[in-house]
Amino acid sequence: MPKSLRWVLVLFAAALVCGQTKxxxxxxxxxxxxxxxxxxxLTMAEDFPADKYNYxxxxxxxTFGAVIVHIAAGNTYAAKAGKGEKVKWDDQEQDPAKxxxxxxxxxxxKNSIKGADEALAMNPEGPNKNMQPFLSVLQHSxxxxxxxxxYYRANGLVPPDSRPK
Length: 165
Fold this sequence. Notes:
The protein is mostly helical. The protein has one domain (24-159): Four Helix Bundle (Hemerythrin (Met), subunit A). Helix content is 62%, strand content 0%. The protein is built from 5 helices and no strands. Helix 2 packs parallel to helix 5.
């Protein structure tokens, strides 16, 4: 191999190595994923028709609006736990009957996301380096995202992420 070609390859390899960014820390990855799922759910909450907010897949299930209120309760739990407050998940549950309109459900969700984001910004690893409250809520919200997709499909609607871009 000619010497000049070797130098080109060495410089190219060095440029690749220098151009790489460091992988995110666990706390950074958690924050990114937490914001990602909340963004998707908020988009759905804002997009779903107001006249279908009382729709249930089955009589024993939550309405679409009640699922949004339930997700907000998880965010509230994460926000409080992330700030070091002694909190129980069940104590954060809101009565969906108090949120009767789409606007009320969306406002509650936005407020809960804001609180959780503030807690993550203050201390992305949580008190005592415990990210568990945020991990639990991330998993919880992701499961309910799938349920919200089913509400869309059952109503003959296409979820925002499934629409052509």
